[in-house]
Design goal:
Layout (H helix, E strand, L loop, with lengths): L4 E3 H7 L4 H34 L4 H29 L1 H19 L5 H29 L5 H30 L2 H6 L7 H7 L4 H6 L3 H11 L10 E3 L20
Parallel strand pairs: 1-2
Helix pairs in contact: 2-3, 2-4, 2-5, 2-6, 3-4, 3-5, 4-5, 5-6
Length: about 250
């Protein structure tokens, strides 16, 4: 039976769990694993850098905070950018930033260079996380949504554990730089991410990329017939009160 109008949000909410969903979760898990790793390597590298560059604890703390500052700006910048160019593109940009500039950090010769590279890497570290959560949440069927988002997000902690274990295994022999070179691994997967990570279907519908959106919907519900005549619609969203006063309404104060 050919549908004439199809509510995208309802289709996703009611869909059965399929390999497509697993693909989305696993790729997002892979990215967030290295996202957590790239932030956690500060704890492994800084004690060694303090000795090599003769830094005090205060100087080392300031150096570590550069990535955190980058994360703050990255989360704000790339959250807004995703609404304009799509989540997939933003995720690819962020992976390039946090992986590429963390890798480059292994070549830093002084604290200033290191701090600049960590700040730029922090933009990607902070920017990718909300987009991964949003993409996973958007594609997850309603009854599995919390479980899938939590499972994906656990990769952040796993990345921290991976950094600690690899630090114990490799830094005594290869020094602190090896930790940053390992961070470059996701760069090799960018072409694969581009091919297999789907774009936000909500974005595709809003951006009138209907053919791509129909193709994804067909994969989500292969039992339905989605044709070029199928009109895709989204749930009507109520425009929220964005005033400063709204911060203090409904118990938020």
């Amino acid at each position: 039976m050919t549908a004439t109008t199809m509510n995208v949000n309802a289709v996703i909410d009611q869909a059965k769990f399929k390999p497509f969903h697993l693909t989305v979760v696993l790729w997002c898990l892979f990215v967030v694993l290295f996202d957590g790793y790239d932030l956690a390597i500060n704890g492994v590298a800084l004690p060694l850098l303090m000795k090599e560059w003769s830094m005090t604890a205060v100087q080392a703390g300031m150096l570590a905070s550069t990535a955190l500052a980058g994360m703050m700006f990255g989360a704000m910048l790339f959250g807004m950018l995703a609404d304009k160019i799509g989540r997939k593109k933003v995720i690819i940009i962020c992976v390039t930033l946090f992986s590429g500039f963390t890798f480059a950090g292994g070549f830093a010769s002084n604290p200033t260079e290191f701090g600049i590279l960590r700040f730029i890497a922090g933009l990607g570290i902070g920017g990718v996380l909300p987009n991964l959560v949003a993409l996973t949440s958007e594609y997850a069927p309603q009854k599995f949504r919390s479980t899938l988002v939590t499972a994906m997000f656990s990769g952040y902690a796993m990345g921290g554990i991976m950094a600690a274990l690899l630090g114990v295994a490799f830094t005594p022999t290869f020094g602190w730089k090896i930790m940053f070179f390992i961070a470059g691994i996701p760069l090799l997967f960018i072409p694969i991410l581009w091919k297999f990570l789907p774009e936000s279907v909500t974005f595709l519908v809003k951006d009138q990329q209907t053919e791509k959106a129909r193709s994804i919907i067909q994969r989500l519900v292969p039992e339905e017939t989605v044709t070029s005549d199928t009109v895709l619609v989204l749930n009507e969203a109520k425009v929220p009160d964005a005033s400063v006063a709204a911060l203090f309404k409904n118990g938020r104060g």
